[in-house]
Amino acid sequence: MVDNLATGRVANIADLLDDPGFAFVEHDVSNPIEVDGPVEAVLHFASLASPIDYLNRPIQTLKSGSLGTHNSLGLAVAKGARYLLASTSEVYGDPEVHPQPETYWGHVNPVGPRGVYDESKRFAESMATAYAQVHAVPVRIARIFNTYGPFMRPDDGRVVSNMLVQAISGIPLTIYGDGSQTRSFCFVTDLVAGLLALLDSDHEGPMNIGNPVEFTVAELATKVGEVLGTDVAVTHMDLPVDDPRQRRPDITLARTVLGWEPTVQLAEGLAITADYFRQRLADDR
Ligand code: UDP
Question: 15-38 pLDDT, tens per residue?
């Protein structure tokens, strides 16, 4: 595993460090990557992924999506490895087609604040596709929709972590805008199962991996209150620039090709994630 710890932390992989089959290298994938010995598969997940992170560090975000993709594809060529790119629902931008199928080309503002993430991932998809054509790298492209679960940072800034931490701390939940915008939240174990199935498949071209059950942000706040069994107050803040109005994956392709679909309901996933944050906040105190 390679990570520059820009947003990650070694404590998250503490239970793996003693495993003889696991190695951690602190390295920024924007710089060339060298690995000794054979490599079966390269999985490029390196990126700042929370909007507040990529707004604060736009150039790093562009570099991991562009140079990081180039370097990791170079590793795959050198080793004759399979390649999985973690792409994103953000390639659809603020979508005008709903739900979003893989055939939709998207609606992205290249010079807006989110463009650094969206365009670097769109570039990454193009680069990976070119390597598949020119160097015959077996490339798999996962378009990952909103995902949550244990090991997120409490101050990550995304809606699920924000609302769970706020509810646990007894402070009002922040809703940006009027809360009518929608997202579809996938629990991390479902996501990982989908990604591994995609990696093992022969599917060429992008594939949506996400949970197709859609909620408004206001409904999410209500759900957080229900799961935690507390009355939650909400406070409204400004909607970020270019915040997508709606988002829901069409997962027909993943269902058909992989036989995969999510199984963890939002309430169940939120309860597991809330347990994690309770423990984490107590440990950090
Ligand atoms: N959001 C919110 N309150 C928060 C954080 C986010 O209402 O404390 C909204 C945000 O404006 C967006 C949605 O929740 O409409 C999902 O935001 P997130 O940052 O989790 O991911 P995104 O899908 O925007 O990348």
Answer: 999 999 999 999 999 999 999 999
Pocket-forming residues, ligand 1, beta carbon under 6 Å: 51, 146, 158-159, 162, 174-176, 181, 183, 217, 239-240, 243
Residue nearest (by alpha carbon) to ligand 1 atom 10: 176
- Predicted TM-score (pTM) of the model is 0.97
Taking the alpha carbons of 210, 88, 274, 15 in that order, is the dihedral positive or negative? positive
Q: Indicate the average pLDDT of the chain.
A: 97
**CA of residue 196 to ligand 1 center, whole Å:** 27
Token pair recorded at residue 156: 């990550």
The string of pLDDT tens digits covering residues 122-158 is 999 999 999 999 999 999 999 999 999 999 999 999 9
Q: What is the pLDDT of residue 284?
A: 84
Would strands 2-3 and 25-26 be described as parallel, antiparallel, or unpaired? Answer: parallel
**CA dist 50 → 36, 61, 112, 182, 209 (Å):** 32, 10, 16, 17, 18
Catalytic annotation, residues: 117
- Give per-residue pLDDT as tens, 63-77: 999 999 999 999 999
Among 3.30.470.10, 3.30.70.120, 3.40.50.1100, 3.40.50.720, name the CATH number for the domain at 2-284.
3.40.50.720
